[in-house]
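Hi everyone,

Forwarding the result from last night's run.
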Amino acid sequence: MNAALRFIREWYSIPLLLIVWQLSVSSGLVASRLLPDLTTVVGALTTDLLNGVLIRHAGITIGRSLAGFSMAVVIGIPLAAAMARSPLFSRLVEPSFFVGYPIPKIALFPIFTFIFGLGTPSKIAFTFLECLYPIVITTYLGIRSIQANWIWTAQNAGATRSQIFKRVLIPASLPSIVAGMRIALPIAITIVVVTEMIGDSAGLGYYITSFSTRFRYANVYAGILVIGICGFVLDYAIVLARRKLVYWEGNDRSES
């Protein structure tokens, strides 16, 4: 019973949103042509899932998103660690990151398409750039916030620089690293979908654009729902990984 009550308390907003959606359409408050009722959207969603169209487009979008995101994680975490541990490297790189962070990277997309073309490589490269900033900055700030006496204790115990990095810096900064990953992952999906809308012949962004030009909004909302579901599943996977990796902090509600 407690588990059921907790589940309802945490997730009641989703069915509530769906009820508001249905009531808005059935009452005539919103035109059904712009916002189809739930049964129509679910019908379009079911049809394109069963015939494999949505699965194929979703697979392309998620594959591109995870490729760019993974590259940002692999490169961003060591880069942030180097910034945090080397004053010389920090003075060289940190100003560029903090100045470039608020700049809208979409302005660079024409350059990426010129270099890599309109296909998958340009979308992966652009996603990598967008994800790199939150991962580097959160990891950098996480390592910088580590208490100095932890490092001194490891040094007094005879730990080498690599051992301090592996056994002190990385574990202590894991909450910040995971937080940066949770910020970057939806950014990755958003960037891929937007760039697919700009120019592509596959992916969920193309799927949504294709049906919106034909005024088939039930399919448009079906594509949007698939994006939301994919984002939720991937984020929850990171939450589960966090519970295993940062086990000493427990499982508070903010992770749910």
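The first helix runs from residue 2 to 11.

Cheers,
N.
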